[in-house]
Amino acid sequence: MTYAVLSLRGATKRFGGLVAVNNIDFDVRPGQVLGLIGPNGSGKSTTLNLISGALQPTTGEISLHGAAITNLRADKIAKRGISRTFQLVRLLPSMTVEQNIIAGAVFGHRRRWGAVAASEAAQLAERVGLGGKTHMNIEQLTYIDTKRVELARALASDPKVLLLDEWLAGLNPTELQVGIELIQSLRDEGRTIILVEHVMDAIRSLCDYCVVMSSGAKIAEGTPQDVLSNPEVIRAYLGDDNA
Fold it and tell me: 3-state DSSP call for residue 168?
């Protein structure tokens, strides 16, 4: 069996009496696109926050290539090789597109500086559809272009695992198709990706495997076809009357 790049075992996060993530187990294989799906409030983004170090688990273990990262700070986890985008785009607004991307190269997993980092930033800008815009300030960009900058910054560290938290959210139909094709191209490169997403067309076309969450717990896992036809998953999304 192929080894896991990333593993969660019993990952749990409590906020007082609220259990946001409840005893989650799953593995991510090399080159796999894993969809983490479920209704709003099911714990998906909290799970990404546990993996990236933005939050620490109350109990449970998370490992990267077999080495525990459970209690490491976010910056230490980034340097180990986990990079991410956010549900609400987080950029450095006082910096240009190029400078934002360079920040990912400087502070991430495969660290580069100076002219090497600038050259990498230019290549990544072109890669995500920002060619000719590296000099622009963040406030000059369209919404999809801010998402492209954040993705390029995440890729600048050459991550072992890329976390995409609803990266396709808020895009119009034309932008959505462009976004799906961009993520597809990352998949074709052999990138290992965890994708939190509500766009089912994206889940079906991009994901090799899905983990479905509801009320903080894992309720199903399997191929997109299997989980999206699962009555328990349909109930979680649509309610009992639609199952």
Answer: coil
Give CA–CA dist 209/195, Å, rounded: 10
Q: Which residues are CB-contacts of 22 (< 8 A; sequence separation ≥ 6)? A: 12, 43, 215, 216, 217
Identify the DSSP state of 212: E
In this prediction, residues 23-35 reach a mean pLDDT of: 96
CA distances from 23 to 71, 209, 214 (A): 16, 19, 12
Opening angle at CA 88, ends 83 and 94, nearest 5: 80
What is the pTM for the complete model shown?
Answer: 0.91
Q: How many residues does the chain have?
A: 243
Asked whether 101 and 149 are in contact (CB, 8 A), the reply is yes
- Selecting from 3.40.50.620, 3.40.50.800, 3.40.50.300, 2.60.40.10, what CATH number does the domain 1-81+193-243 have? 3.40.50.300
Label residue 88 by pLDDT band (50, 70, 90): confident
Question: What letter would DSSP give residue 20?
Answer: E
pLDDT of residue 92: 84
From CA 55, how far away is CA 7, in angstroms rounded? Answer: 16
Tokens of 130: 């920002």
Contact 242, 235 (CB under 8 A): yes
CA dist 166 → 3, 18, 209 (Å): 27, 23, 17
**Where do we find the tokens 């989650």?**
24
